[in-house]
Amino acid sequence: MGCALMKIFTPFNTGALHISWGEVVGLRREIRDLQIDYWFSETVFTFNWWLLAISSIVVFVVWIIVLDKKRIIEIAAFGLLVGTTTFILDSIGVALVLWSYPDRVIPILPPIAEIHKIHLPITYMIIYQYFSTWRSYLVSVVIASFTFSFILEPLTVWLDIYKIYHWEYIYSFPLYILIGFILRAIMLKARKMERN
Question: Which pTM value belongs to this model?
Fold first, then answer.
């Protein structure tokens, strides 16, 4: 089992297999300080910073306007599931250095919280709210997945908001679809259990 895990992580291995926890914490502090310095010198008030900040506010305001207030708990719960799932998957990708995010609105928040806690969940919540049949819902999720994978991801790469190291846009496409499919199935099951 240990050999199999080492093979998975071999591309990411720096060669230092014996390191103390204190050294890990020290490196994390250095990285934190570097990220904050980078944010102040290269990110804050740049075009990318404003783009992330304003688009997050606009997406949130649009959601508040179109939100079905009678279903707010259900829809918000779905969005929370989407945000948590994408946050976990994204954290894994960043930790494995598959990709990274040089720019963020607030330096101490996790990378690209704007997209994974605002843009993606709100997009999925709007789809969840407006498309009640599986067919219409899945068609909408496929369109959204295509848009995120092949339009928005390349755009954010071009803008240097998103850096890809060991990832391809095509890998994201089925993941976005699966997230939408699995989480809707979970929500429908939860609603059915609640009514029984």
Answer: 0.86
Rounded Cα distance, 49 and 137, in Å: 32
Instruction: Measure CA 165 to chain center.
Output: 17
Give per-residue pLDDT as tens, 52-61: 999 999 999 9
The answer to whether 144 touches 127, Cβ cutoff 8 Å, is: yes
Residue 56: φ, ψ to 5°: -65, -45
Angle at 150 between CA 134 and CA 127, to 5 degrees: 30
With CA atoms as reference, report the closest residue to 109 among 148, 52, 166: 52
Q: Return left, alpha or beta for 76; rule: phi > 0 is left, psi -120 to 50 is alpha, else beta.
A: alpha
**Residues 115-163: pLDDT tens digits?**
878 999 999 999 999 999 999 999 999 999 999 999 999 999 999 999 9
Domain boundaries, the chain: 22-195
pLDDT given at position 138:
98
Contact 104, 43 (CB under 8 A): yes
In this prediction, residue 108 carries a pLDDT of 83
How far is C-alpha 65 from the chain's CA centre? 23
Q: What is the chain's mean pLDDT, rounded?
A: 90
Q: Roughly what angle, to the nearest 10 degrees, separates helices 120-130 and 169-195?
A: 50
3-state SS assignment for residue 99: strand
Residue showing tokens 């954290």 = 91
